[in-house]
Amino acid sequence: MARVRPWSATSCTYALDPRYAGTLRDYGLRFTGQDDGHPRIAELPGHRFFLSTLFQPELAVDTSWPRPLVRAFASAAVGRSTKT
After folding, report:
1. C-alpha angle with apex 70: 60 to 4, nearest 5 degrees?
2. CA 77/CA 28 separation, integer angstroms
3. For the chain, how far is it from start to end, CA to CA, in angstroms?
4. Phi/psi at 42 (nearest 5 deg)?
5. Backbone Cα Rg of the chain
6. Which of 25, 33, 40, 55 has its C-alpha lying 20 to 30 A from 11's C-alpha?
7. In this structure, is the dihedral angle defined by the CA atoms of residues 31, 17, 74 and 7, taken in order, positive or negative?
């Protein structure tokens, strides 16, 4: 079995209000990550870089490897800056 690295120190007490989940989905928001049954990651397909999290990927338990979310954001920002 592969070992999964813990990649964020979380103590999030915020959560999506379930009353709004359907409306957000209807307008294209996708909930792509969960924790304890609660959405923690949301993405908007078709947008260059729209990603929302209810955790802080920079507060990592293991600082020896770059966080995928932070790396993707930095890459998107660099790619965008070279186009202007």
Report:
1. 50
2. 23
3. 45
4. -130, 140
5. 15
6. 25
7. negative
Q: Provide φ and ψ at 48, rounded to 5°.
A: -55, -45
- Distance between CA 84 and CA 79 in Å, rounded? 9
Task: Give the C-alpha separation, 1 to 30, whole Å.
Answer: 29
SS3 16: coil
Position 58 scores a pLDDT of 64
CA-based nearest residue to 45, from 64, 28, 66, 63 = 28
Tell me how far apart the alpha carbons of residues 50 and 47 are, in angstroms, rounded to a whole number: 6
The residues of the chain scoring below 50 in pLDDT are 1-4
Q: Which candidate, 54, 71, 67, places its Cα nearest to that of 5?
A: 67
